[in-house]
Amino acid sequence: MRGSIDRGQILQGKVGKLKNTVVALFVAASALFSLAQSPAETTPSVPRGTVDPDLLVDVYDAAKAWPGTTLLPDNHDLSRPRIIEVNMAGEIIWQYVIPSTLRQYTNPGFDVEPLLNNNVLFVLPRNGIYEIDRTGKVVWSHLDAKVSHDADRLPNGNTLYVYGAYDERDDAQVKEVNQKGETVWAWYARDHFNRPPFTDIYVEGWTHTNAVSRLANGNTLISLRNFDFVAEVDPSGTVVRTIGEGIFREQHDPVMLPNGNVLAADHATDPNRAVEIDPAFNRIVWQFATAAGRPVRDANRLPNGNTLITGSSGIVEVTPEKEVVWRLRLKTPLVGPEGATKGFYKAERISSPDAPAPTATPSPVPTPTGTATPAAATPAPSSNQIQLSAGWNLISVPGPQTDSSVSAVFAGAPGVTRVQTFQDGAWLFAGRTADGWGGALAQIIDGKAYWVSASEAATLSLRPKAADPLAPRPSYPLPQGMSMIGFTSSQATMPVDTYLSSLSGKWSTLYRYNPVLGWEMAKPGGLGFTGVELGRGYWIQLTESGTLAP
Prior knowledge:
Layout lengths: L6 H9 L5 H16 L18 E6 L7 E7 L7 E5 L5 E6 L14 E3 L5 E5 L3 E5 L5 E6 L7 E3 L5 E4 L11 E4 L5 E5 L2 H4 L15 E6 L5 E5 L4 E5 L5 E5 L7 E6 L5 E5 L6 E6 L4 E7 L6 E6 L5 E5 L2 E5 L5 E7 L7 H4 L6 E4 L33 E4 L2 E5 L10 H4 L6 E8 L2 E8 L2 E4 L10 E5 L3 E4 L14 E3 L2 E6 L6 E3 H4 L7 E8 L3 E6 L3 E2 L2 E3 L3 E6 L3 E3 L2
Antiparallel strand pairs: 1-24, 2-3, 2-25, 3-4, 5-6, 6-7, 7-8, 9-10, 10-11, 11-12, 13-14, 14-15, 15-16, 17-18, 18-19, 19-20, 21-22, 22-23, 23-24, 26-32, 27-31, 28-29, 28-31, 29-30, 33-41, 34-40, 35-39, 36-37, 36-40, 37-38
Helix pairs in contact: 1-2
């Protein structure tokens, strides 16, 4: 977390508050590790930001809110639209003011997204998409007068975006472009909905498509605002199902959750609300009506199970029990029609490295639909290298190392300051000190997973030991409950069920962590993410003890 709130206080406050065992154990270990360090080695205080006279945080429960910073487009002053990043106290720790030549393109609603490389991607409606670094330099752009509300950077480097502001029947509502700006995929609503009752609809466009996201199964989730539902389409463009009919009303920014449910901002209801539905039964499983300022256009599920909801005049974070634990608002709320054209549009919480473990809330995942192949991924994993992001990383080594000591494995990554793992019901940790490494964790073993805290992005170079064909196959006994496991294999990837075949009937959920997207789940039978990969670490939930025998 960047801001004026002390990280240690947040961590210690969580120990007695969070119900999830994994979170509590991780926090307790982190706090104990911090206490064991000398004053020079404790987690440094994070610089304060700048107080903005128009902004106010008037609710903040550090023990229950998910720590981090919040990135959002701020359009409450039309003469000075900007992108801001605020700490938990509401102080601005970074901002980018939209150039005067582009200020006319901030409506209807401009979208902002943090990228893995720490750059920022944003959309200027009816103008284009821009990627800037933290100095404000434009490093990539794609101009398109038919871009509107939403753009996402895909793992393969392509950019997926929508057009819904006064779209016509012959327009492409969704496009995917590569780094050269070439269209590599497009989707047209006319191919599927050019029929009653949809042909007679027209409210600020035919579909007013306002959001799109690429799913883990390779399909694409598209929000058709004027149709009051979300469509899931496969790579061929075929609609494999619609979601939310009879429930959603002018939904905004729907997202598929790891449990298979869909969370969206519903801003045609009174009052506006965030609503989570179970598509398998088309029923509401959770909702929260908010007075954050009409209209409400964004709802994001945070790693601890809280929900971040964005309205025109405020942003609130609420627990599953609907307690508001953080609120940022404009001191002068927007009233009436101006709320639709000014104020906040969307917000993204950038997680603090101090709290990487989530509150696990497993629930049934509906059977995937369609026959889509997975979307292109990041570069193939290597047995010799692991890519680390700044912050917390959940990793594993693919096999025995020539020297498995913590100091040897992380010798080439000076930005790594802390490593810890959960074994036999207890946390083991190691920390870098002025004299080397200290702590009870001494070895990095294949088949196990490790939390690694890095101050900057880095490439971890490994030195695998030559394989011994006569050596017995490794096995790893695991207790009932939660354990951390790694992927040890000569293959780059393997289906989840294949890798866990020795635990068949004994495991219920496998978790992996993405530093930006948060937590993803897999279930037996190929539900959720489908493959384990070199370099990644995993949490596994066992219903009874067993032995992992890769």
